[in-house]
From TrEMBL, chain A:
Residues 1-18 form the signal peptide. This is Zinc carboxypeptidase. GO terms for biological process: proteolysis. InterPro entries: Peptidase_M14. CDD domains: M14-like. Its cofactor is Zn(2+). The active site is at E377 (proton donor/acceptor). Gene3D superfamilies: Zn peptidases. It holds the Pfam family Peptidase_M14. Belongs to the peptidase M14 family. The keyword Signal applies. The lineage of its organism: Bacteria, Pseudomonadati, Bacteroidota, Cytophagia, Cytophagales.
UniProtKB/TrEMBL annotation, chain B:
One of its GO terms (cellular component) is extracellular space. PANTHER family: PROTEASE FAMILY M14 CARBOXYPEPTIDASE A,B, SLL0236 PROTEIN. This is Zinc carboxypeptidase. GO terms for molecular function: metallocarboxypeptidase activity; zinc ion binding. Residues 1-19 form the signal peptide.
Length: 581, 548
């Protein structure tokens, strides 16, 4: 603690922010450790935010911290909403877009709402902690974050404001014909009782294969093979709106924004949810343009729900060879620590451990752009009672028990009778739309923090380059041999091995200034003097990669003398570094 | 080149349409299409379906009568790979011939069919034909780092002999792998050590190695080739393919156009690919995997049929083998858009028969020339086409300071783009094929409509939906594709009528030629009901039936 306070005072002297206040909060015991005390932007993290609230939060944060947070729109959504992106860095140190960048988005699936709050929490925590947490200060001096709380704002609004279940809409709001009858979105769910939730329909039936759980009247269970049931399940609340003999067969959307990306994109008959071509959606197009225009993005995180998984690509088995061992080792490093940081979460590979995804966002980031990218399935039933269930992720009764014991039955709509025009006398009831997939309020802040911490670990290990040393050796004829060592202090390389193979991003440039360079070369083995000459632009040497905690050595032959050599390193993803000798 | 520019300057736009040997630039093409739509106003309209990266309109000409979007259609697409100018010219000539045809059978087609013609998908690239320095350019105006070295356009061609044409350079070098062909010493061929041949020349493109990477002219202007940028089997990170599939505005424009016109039954593409003179064979192993990479069985049979039709109607022979390439539009049209996709260069070098030697009795032997360049030069010579070959002439080349370097070779564009005057005949042949294909298109009809009284107020109605065309109502692959519609048969009720048995809406997959689908309903009530059946690719029919 003493050491902490000491460091704290040290950082105060360099800061324009009032440290006194934060310190006082600590001293009088009001500050809970790990949380910003007395934040400039007052937020509570036990509720969800609609589009107006997200917009106001983004604007408030930018206004409160003009030197740390800038807000811009990366473009309009399908229905014309601005897609806000917050650029968070210490704008007074360096050039924002030349620092290694970390991209965060949430809510690509509109019903998977809490990715937005985790993204917002991250932005808020970084800005509010800059002055008081030296690690965060250093982080924002070295790196830049681009945070887009929701990349599906239209359908998020639909999820929050209109009747839905936990799985709808998932899609965006562009109306499509799902049942092939030539009409779009004509048979959606119907909120029969007008309570804002789309729950389940059940009907008493002598031939049914379901019964009420004797221990919990809210819960329906399937009868055993040799047992007679007394209920049949009729799916989600709805009518046959178009009179075609089917119920709810053409709902809002339907397509999957996470099948709209330009890596191993496959059509709808192979990958359900795909559109005409990768980037059919304006939202996808906006993000692609943003990423293409920010070649400094070296790490990325996309938030989904549900299941408690830190996922890496590939989404499809065919792409497994593209995740070569060196790159997998980087993911493994984060994944293993992540499992410790967030109990109940597992580090998984999408195609192996979840299901196949062609044309997903993170494969485009990772394989299309060479960005180390995770996708996290937020929340797991482990969090309910801090233990793993032995049943499947949707079959267990822990949610029922949790609702009873900790939420006092708040999470379910109690079964009630309804006269259905097609099904006759039925009952409707079941989990509310904001249960099972979305965090209960009191758990949201904790999981936001744990997930943010994982993402900050990831971001903090983006490359940090340093010119370590410069050796001079006189050669005959008034020439001097100059050898420089460039070191990457972090785990993530300037180029993934996949990037190196396909030359996705340009090489790193290492330039010797204030010198009359006559030749330049890459040093492959300094001790054995094995080098490879670069004939073109010898002053600016090009290296394909500077690996994690690795170094490269470069050499110039210069004519004449200079008492002030400057070595400049310029890496798209690794940022800038320079040193004068 | 200067002479050509002079001619361009002298001729008015209208006269240019008649200029016999030069291909048109984008503004000339625009005027020509607009003139066409003005002249045939009721049967033709032209619209821009998007702009190229360089801001040029991509034009679609719609030919047909009345409600064109409600009729089954054939689309003709060209100029996707910008180096193929002949395709663009052929597509426009086909449109002109279709509209100008005096034949009743062609005019009758417009009652039931629609034709969409998109002659220039990649206008930026095609503009290079009219540029000061001509080179065969496939890519649009997007800035690309073709060799992915971090430098943009740092190693372009250089016109070393100042003739306005980018050809080749041969360098005498013991390390070279080329020799002069015995059949035509102007042409260089790879030395074959198995035949005891030893290389004598290096052969490169016309220009310097500006960035000293050992490669010549690997990164000049000319961005993304739209024919490498579409979604099926997209080639990753290769020169001209773009940064990701459908990255280019031209790609999205043509795909949006296709996907939104759900009435398109088949697409004919003019370009550097050929599946028409010889159809793609069915290979089951390619159709049973998760990602389908082979033509489905029923579609292969249709391909065979259409190939025969093409060969017989056009009478074209000795076609080049040009498999469809990765990321090409013609492949995406089949595998992703789910439509029949037919591709042909339209024109290729005809075989040149040796002149008849009358002093000999036996028929002359035709030398089996394998080399495409020699074959072309022979044909050009026989046809007396000028300026197809730049004779080798020595130049100073700094990358080969002490060596003998010469510029020369076949002029750009000529091999696949003959003088325009040669295309009129080709267009006539393709018009025959196109009209024959259109006449074989599917047609939905409703047959044997029966209405029986089952009991008072209860009627059984039976109807047969049949495809009376010679081709299926849609491609088999279309059965899988969400954006290709199913055949929809709907029973429409009114008043006190109700369905007692049967579905109101019935959807089914494609009907083969002559195939029948029967539907039956039990209906209570009185009056008459309507049955409508159809699919956008094969038309629709409606019948009214009285309840008994």
């Amino acid at each position: 603690m003493k050491k902490y306070i000491f460091l704290f005072f040290l950082s105060c002297s360099f800061s324009v922010f009032s440290q006194e206040k934060a310190q006082n909060d600590d001293l009088i015991g009001l500050r809970a450790i790990g949380s910003p005390a007395n934040p400039k932007v007052k937020m509570s993290w036990n509720h969800y935010n609609d589009y107006a609230m997200i917009s106001r939060f983004c604007q408030d944060l930018a206004k409160a911290y003009p030197d740390l947070v800038k807000i811009e729109s990366m473009g309009k959504s399908y229905q014309g909403r601005d897609m806000w992106v917050l650029t968070i860095t210490d704008f007074r140190t360096g050039t924002a877009n030349r620092k290694p960048g970390f991209y965060i988005d949430g809510n690509i699936h509109s019903n998977e709402i809490q990715g937005t709050e985790v993204s917002m929490y991250t932005a808020w925590y970084l800005a509010e902690s800059f002055a008081s947490v030296p690690f965060v200060k250093q982080l924002l001096q070295d790196k830049v974050f681009y945070i887009t709380p929701t990349i599906n704002p239209d359908a998020r609004e639909d999820f929050l404001k209109n009747p839905n279940n936990a799985n709808s809409p998932r899609s965006g709001m562009m109306a499509l014909d799902d049942d092939g009858d030539g009409v779009a979105d004509e048979d959606k769910y119907d909120d029969l009782d007008g309570d804002g939730n789309i729950v389940l329909m059940r009907r008493k039936s002598a031939t049914g294969r379901w019964k009420i759980d004797p221990e919990n009247p809210q819960r329906m269970i399937q009868v055993k093979q040799d047992e007679k049931g007394d209920y049949e399940m009729l799916g989600y609340e709805g009518l046959d709106n178009d009179g075609d003999g089917q119920v709810n067969e053409d709902v809002t959307g339907y397509y999957d924004p996470n099948r709209d990306w330009g890596w191993n994109w496959q059509p709808d008959y192979i990958q359900r949810g795909a559109l005409y071509y990768p980037g059919t959606l304006p939202e996808t197009k906006n993000i692609k343009n943003f990423v293409m225009n920010h070649p400094n993005i070296a790490g990325a995180q996309s938030y989904h729900n549900y299941g408690g998984m830190f996922l890496r690509g590939p989404g499809a088995e065919e792409d497994a060879p593209f995740y070569v061992a060196q790159d997998a080792a980087v993911y493994d490093y984060f994944g293993k620590i992540g499992e410790k940081m967030n109990p109940g979460y597992k580090y998984f590979v999408i195609y192996k451990d979840l299901y196949t995804v062609y044309g997903g966002e993170i494969d485009w980031m990772a394989l299309g752009r060479g960005i180390f990218t995770f996708s996290t399935e937020l929340l797991t039933s482990y969090k309910l009672f801090n233990k793993n269930t032995e049943e499947g992720r949707y079959q267990n009764n822990e949610f029922d028990e949790f609702s009873k014991l900790l939420l006092f039955d708040d999470a379910y709509v109690t079964w009630k009778p309804f006269k259905h025009p097609q099904y006759g006398d039925i009952e409707i009831g079941g989990p509310k739309k904001n249960y099972v997939r979305a965090h209960p309020g009191f758990m949201l802040e904790e999981d936001a923090h744990r997930n943010m911490a994982f993402t900050i670990l990831h971001a903090s290990q983006m490359p940090k380059l340093e010119v370590l040393d410069l050796k001079q050796k006189p050669l005959a004829g008034g020439l001097t041999e100059i050898t420089a060592t460039i070191f990457n202090q972090k785990v993530i390389p300037t180029h993934s091995a996949h990037d190196v193979k396909y030359k996705i991003e340009r090489p790193d440039y290492i330039t010797l200034k204030n010198a009359n360079v006559v030749a330049g070369m890459l040093v492959e083995n300094e001790d054995l003097n094995i080098t490879k000459e670069q004939k073109f632009t010898p002053q600016t040497l090009e290296v394909t990669n500077i690996s994690g905690l690795g170094n490269v050595k470069v050499r110039w032959i210069v004519k004449g003398k200079s008492d002030r050599y400057t070595v400049e390193v310029d890496s798209a993803k690794g940022g800038l570094a320079s040193k004068t000798f | 080149m200067k002479k050509l520019l002079l001619i361009f300057g002298l001729l008015s736009v209208n006269q240019l349409a008649n200029a016999q040997n030069a291909y048109q630039n984008h503004s000339q093409l625009t005027s020509r299409l607009k003139a066409l739509s003005a002249r045939y106003g009721t049967n033709a309209s032209v619209q821009s379906i998007g702009k190229s990266k360089g801001g040029r309109d991509i034009w679609a000409l719609t030919i047909g009568k009345g409600n064109v979007s409600q009729k089954p259609a054939i689309a003709i697409i060209a100029g996707v790979d910008g180096a193929h100018l002949a395709g663009t010219e052929l597509a426009v000539q086909l449109a002109e011939k279709l509209l100008g045809s005096a034949s009743d059978s062609v005019a009758k087609l417009f009652d039931t069919k629609t034709f969409y013609i998109v002659p220039g998908v990649n206008p930026d690239a095609q503009e290079q034909y009219a540029a000061k320095v001509k080179f065969e350019r496939s890519g649009n105006d997007t800035d690309t780092d073709d060799d992915r070295d971090g430098r943009m356009n740092e190693d372009p061609f250089e016109d070393l002999n100042g003739d306005g044409l980018i050809t080749q350079i041969r360098v005498e070098d013991p390390a070279g792998t080329y020799i002069l062909s015995k059949d035509d010493p102007r042409v260089l061929i790879k030395a074959d050590p198995a035949k005891g041949e030893i290389g004598k020349y290096l052969l490169i493109t016309e220009g310097f190695d500006n960035d000293k990477d050992g490669l010549f002219n690997e990164d000049g202007v000319g961005g993304v080739n739209i024919d490498k940028n579409t979604t099926y089997d997209y080639p990753i990170f290769v020169a001209g393919s773009g940064e990701y599939a459908a990255s280019e505005p031209e790609t999205r424009a043509i795909l949006d156009f296709l996907y939104k016109n759900i009435n398109i039954f088949a697409v004919l593409t003019f370009g550097p690919g050929n599946n028409l003179t010889e159809a793609v064979k069915f290979d089951k192993s390619k159709t049973t995997k998760r990602i389908i990479t082979g033509v489905l069985e029923k579609d292969a049979a249709v391909g065979e049929l259409v190939s025969k039709l093409y060969n017989s109607k056009t009478g074209l022979k000795d076609a080049p083998v040009l498999p469809l390439t990765k990321g090409s539009l013609a492949q995406t049209i089949y595998y992703h858009y789910g439509r029949f996709s037919f591709a042909t260069p339209g024109w290729w070098t005809p075989k040149t028969l040796a002149p008849k030697d009358t002093s000999k009795k036996e028929s002359p032997k035709v030398p089996a020339t394998e080399n495409e360049d020699i074959k072309y030069l022979k044909w050009a010579e026989a046809q007396k086409i000028p300026n197809v070959f730049v004779n080798w002439q020595a130049v100073k080349h700094p990358d080969f300071a002490d060596k003998k370097a010469e510029v020369g070779g076949i002029a750009p564009f000529v091999k696949w783009n003959p003088p325009v005057s040669f295309l009129a005949e080709t267009a006539d042949k393709h018009l025959k094929f196109l009209t024959a294909l259109a006449n074989q298109m599917p047609e939905i009809q409703l047959l044997n409509v029966q209405s029986e009284a089952v009991s008072a107020g209860l009627t059984r109605i039976t109807v047969q939906v049949i495809n009376k065309g010679l081709l299926p109502t849609s491609a088999e692959i279309g059965d899988k594709v969400r954006w290709a519609q199913k055949i929809k048969t709907e029973l429409k009720l009114s008043g006190n009528q109700a369905i007692v048995s049967g579905r109101k809406i019935n959807l089914r997959n494609a009907l083969a030629s002559g195939e029948v689908q029967e539907y039956t309903w039990l209906i209570s009530g009185s009056g008459s009901v309507t049955i409508e059946s159809g699919v956008p690719t094969a038309g629709s029919k409606t019948v009214s039936v009285n309840l008994k």
